[in-house]
Amino acid sequence: MGTKEKLLERIKTLPKDFTFEEATRLLSLCGYKLENKGKTSGSKVLFIDNAHRKILLHKPHPGNILKGYAIKEIVDKLQRNGNI
Predict the structure, then answer these.
(1) Exposed site from 21, 24, 36, 66, fewest CB < 10 Å?
(2) According to CATH, what is the number of the domain 3-80?
């Protein structure tokens, strides 16, 4: 089982300790590219794939663990886009 499959299996369980780096790696493996929303976006980051489908997340701070709603949003978008 490769990295992508392991991360997909992990995120589907909605873990309480899924990090922003893990999400970035997973989305990258699914064909998404990280883009900052601009100078005034604060902690918002945007992931866009080749079909221009978007996933908007807030970078967690001061820690590195994503909030539950963000993990659910990633799972939902990946399911809708056919990645899961």
Answers:
(1) 21
(2) 3.30.920.30
